[in-house]
Amino acid sequence: MKKRIIASVFTVFTIFASLSTGVFAADTSAPTASSYSVYNLSGSQTSVIPVNHEGETWSNRSTVRAIINDVTDVSGVQGVKFYVKYTSYPYSNVQSEYNGQQIPNTTNWYADIPVSGDSVTIQAFPIDNLGNTLYNSMKGNISYQYTKSFQSDFNIPGGFTSIEPQGSYWIDAQDRYVTNAAQIKLKATVHDSDGAPWSSSSVKSVSFRLFKNGSNGFSGYSSTYISGNQNRSGDYVCTFNRSSLTAETSYKVVAVIIDYSGNSFYTTPKYFVTDTQCPQGIVSAPSNTVYGDSFDVYIDNVSEASYVDTVYFPTWTDANGQDDLVWYTGYRVGEKTWKITINRSNHKNEKGLYYTHVYTSDFFGNLGFAGGTYVVLQ
C-alpha cells in the first residue's frame, strides 16, 4: 500500500512538471529559419550582392552583413553563430567565428563581417536553449542549408577614352579636339591595371560623363551621363549630335567603368570644343581714298587665329556690278592679321569705288563672312 501511494505521488509530480514546462518529448533538433542572405554594406545602406551573368555572387565591400530570418525553436533560441571560411590562396582554410546579434523585437539575427581574399563562405548556425546546433557536424559543408559563398573582388578595371568626331576636327595646343562635326563618337577601351584586355563579361556598364565648361571652369557644373554600347571590337561607344550641346563651348569627357562587383574606374579626362563659327576680326583699309594703282585691305584681331585655314578677300568695282569680281587669297602678316593688295590692273583698270569683303575659313570646315570695307581709287 505504501509503495502504491509513493508511485501515485511520483506520477502526479511528473505530470505537473510536464504541464509546467510544456516539454513532453526530448528536443534534439537545432532551430530553424525561413531565409538566409548576405548583403553588401555601404555606409548605413544595405544592398543585395550583385549577381553576374553566370549566377555567381560577388562583393567588393570590405564588410558584409549576414542575416538569418525567423529563427525559432520549441526550446527557445539562445543565439546564432556565424562561421566564415576563406577557400582561396593565400587565405586558404583561414577560419573565423562571429556571434550574431538579435534585431530588437524580431526573431532575426545578423553579424557584420569584414572580408578579404577571393572566395569566402559564410554559414549561420542557430543554437537553442538546450545547446542544440548543427555547428559541429555541418561546419564547412557547403550543402548546409544556411550557407552563402561569394567572391570578394577588389580588382579595379582600367581603361581610356577617345573622342572621334564624325567629320572635320583639329587638335589644339591644349590637346583638345576642336570640331564642327554634326556627330561626335566617344569610345572607351577597358583593360586591367597591367594594360591587358579586361573580360567583357566582367563589365556591368560603361557610361560617359560630360562636363560643360563655363566662367568657373569645369567645377560646379552639372554633368550629363550617356550610356555606352559595346561594339564588335569589345569597346564601348556612344554617338551623339552636336546640336544637343552648346556651340563654341569646351567639354570634358570621362568614361565611368563599373564591373559586376561594384568596382568603378574613371578614365583620364579628354576634352573637345564645339566650333561652328568662322573666325572673326576687324576689316579695314588704311584710307578710304587712295591715289594710285593699288590699295591694301587688312583683317586684324582675328579670333581663333591658330585655327585659321584661309582668308579670302573678294573684290569688285561699283561699275557694271560684279563683272570684274576676283577672289583673292590673303597672306598672314602678323599673329592675328591677314592682308591683301588689290591692283587696278586686275579690274579692267577701272577707277572709282571698290568693294572688298572678307571671308574666313578654319580647319574645321567653317566658312563665313567676317566683314567688309570700301576704297575709292583716284
Describe this structure in words.
The chain has two helices and 30 strands. A hairpin with a 5-residue loop joins strand 17 and strand 18. The longest helix is centred in the N-terminal third of the chain and has 20 residues. The N terminus is likely disordered.
CATH class of the largest domain: Mainly Beta
- Strand residue percentage: over 45%
Number of helices: 2
Mean pLDDT figure? 81
Fourth CATH level, the homologous superfamily of the largest domain: Immunoglobulins
Task: Choose one word for the global shape.
Answer: rod-shaped
CATH topology of the largest domain: Immunoglobulin-like
Number of domains: 3
Main sheet characteristics: 7 strands, mixed
CA-based gyration radius: 40 Å
Give the CA-CA distance, first to last residue: 158 Å
Instruction: Provide the helix percentage.
Output: under 10%
Q: Give me the secondary-structure category.
A: mainly beta
Low-confidence stretches: 1-24, 42-59
- The tally of strands reads 30
The CATH architecture of the largest domain is Sandwich
Write a concise keyword list for the protein shown above.
378 residues, mainly beta, Immunoglobulin-like, seven-stranded mixed β-sheet, five-stranded antiparallel β-sheet, 6% helix
Topology:
Elements: H1 2-21, E1 35-42, E2 45-48, E3 58-59, E4 63-69, E5 77-86, E6 95-99, E7 101-102, E8 109-114, E9 119-128, H2 135-138, E10 147-152, E11 158-165, E12 169-171, E13 176-179, E14 183-191, E15 203-212, E16 223-227, E17 229-230, E18 236-241, E19 249-259, E20 264-266, E21 270-274, E22 282-284, E23 289-290, E24 294-300, E25 308-317, E26 326-329, E27 331-334, E28 337-343, E29 352-362, E30 367-377
Parallel strand pairs: 3-10, 13-21, 23-30
Antiparallel strand pairs: 1-2, 1-4, 4-8, 5-6, 5-9, 7-8, 9-10, 11-14, 12-13, 14-18, 15-16, 15-19, 17-18, 19-20, 19-21, 22-24, 24-28, 25-26, 25-29, 27-28, 29-30
